[in-house]
Design a protein that fits this description.
The chain is α/β, with parallel strands linked by helices and 229 residues long. The chain has helices spanning 41-52, 76-90, 98-112, 123-134, 152-155, 176-185, 210-228, and strands at 2-8, 14-20, 28-33, 55-60, 116-121, 140-144, 164-168, 190-194. The chain has one domain (2-228): 3-Layer(aba) Sandwich (Rossmann fold), CATH 3.40.50.
Length: 229
């Protein structure tokens, strides 16, 4: 359903994004932000599913400024490599990868002619939160278990668009105490907590929890249907 397309940031940087087109005129557009494992088969499948629901989906390669062609699985070695790549991207001079996310938003808006939402998973969830607070052209944002977004520095940000956030009660990377503190600090954010671990949405991970993933998916689709219509 999708294919890789080259996008261009305002600083002239060129990077690939997986673009999945719906069969009919788009009802809206969704930017899909990867985990620390690249725009792999799971992220492409997520984008394709949004396209099947009528949304133009754009999944930019947020590692491309430090390493092209990243596509990993979910082994321990993959985790270590992904964490190192994330650290390298986070160390880039500002605006760093946020410029590429803005380019993906702009492309999604131009290609669809409709409102744009953004969704991301793990590190992509953190970037989704940052995008909701700092970037332009968005109408809704949905971070899934955004690693780091419940820290005091990130929680001090203020979203410019409606946000729905999904977290796992048993997430060993994001403490439930920090999630609850984030929810108290942001009553405007729709926070959902599931009886699940980190990565519960990904059916390629051992932490996949199908009931939680299904409920979160339905909530996310309803949220986008509401705010991107």
């Amino acid at each position: 359903m999708g294919q890789f397309v080259d996008l261009h940031s305002r600083d002239g940087f060129t990077f690939p994004a997986w673009v999945a087109q719906p069969d009919t005129a788009p009802r809206g557009a969704v930017v899909v932000l990867q985990e620390i494992f690249g725009v792999n088969s799971h992220i492409r499948a997520v984008a394709d599913r949004f396209a099947a629901r009528g949304y133009l989906a754009v999944a930019p390669s947020t590692f491309y400024r430090v390493r092209p062609g990243v596509e990993m699985g979910y082994s321990g070695e993959d985790m270590q490599a992904g964490m190192a790549l994330k650290s390298a991207v986070e160390a880039l001079p500002a605006p760093g990868v946020m410029a590429d996310i803005q380019a993906a938003i702009d492309y999604a808006a131009a290609q669809s002619g409709r409102k744009v939402g953004i969704v991301g998973f793990c590190w992509g969830g953190l970037l989704t939160w940052r995008a909701a607070c700092t970037l332009s052209g968005l109408s809704a944002a949905v971070p899934y278990y955004g690693g780091g977004m419940t820290t005091p520095d990130e929680a001090a940000r203020h979203p410019q668009v409606p946000v729905m956030a999904h977290f796992g009660q048993r997430d060993h990377f994001i403490s439930i105490d920090s999630v609850q503190a984030f929810a108290r600090a942001h009553p405007e954010v729709e926070v959902h907590i599931y009886d699940a671990d980190h990565g519960f949405n990904c059916d390629q991970r051992g932490s996949y929890d199908e009931p939680s993933a299904r409920v979160a998916r339905d909530r996310t689709l309803a949220f986008f249907d509401k705010h991107l219509a």
